[in-house]
Amino acid sequence: MNSRPTLAVSIATRNRLIDLQSTLEEVARLDPPPDEVLVCADGCTDGTAAWVREHFPRVRLLIHEQAQGSIVSRDRILREAVSDIVLSCDDDSHPVETDFIARVKELFAVTPRLAVVSFPQRSDEFPETLRQADFGPSLQVGTYVNCAAAFRRSTYLDIGSFDLSFFSAYDEPDYALRCLARDWQIHYYTGATMRHHYSSKERSELRTHHQHARNEQWSLWKRCPFPQLLFLSLFRGFRQFQYACRRGLHWMIREPLWWLAAWRGLGLALKERQPVPWAVYLRWLHLLRKPEPLSAAGKGAD
Question: Cys staple from 83: which of 8, 41, 202, 277, with CB 3.0 to 4.6 Å?
Answer without folding.
Answer: 8
